[in-house]
Amino acid sequence: MNDTRQHAHSLIDRVPETQLCGPIVDPVATALRHAPLDDEPETEDDVAEARAWLH
Is residue 8 over pLDDT 80? Predict the structure, then answer.
């Protein structure tokens, strides 16, 4: 085994097992889940811009 690979293995071996076995977390999904809801009312301009963007 080369030195770089051996070094990587030794670093991984130092990580507590509880951190290795946890779920993989998507940081974007987490941020979206914790973001506040947009409670600002839609205006006619908002709807028109959205429709124009979709076409």
Answer: yes
Q: How far apart are CA 55 and CA 50, in angstroms?
A: 9
What pTM does this model have? 0.35
- Please write down the HEC assignment for all residues of 5-48: HHHHHHHHHHCCHHHHCCCCCCHHHHHHHHCCCCCCCCCHHHHH
How many Å apart are CA 45 and CA 31, to the nearest integer?
28
What is the Cα Rg of the chain in Å?
23
End-to-end CA distance of the chain: 57
Could you read off the pLDDT of 29-50 as tens digits, one per residue? 889 999 999 899 999 999 999 9
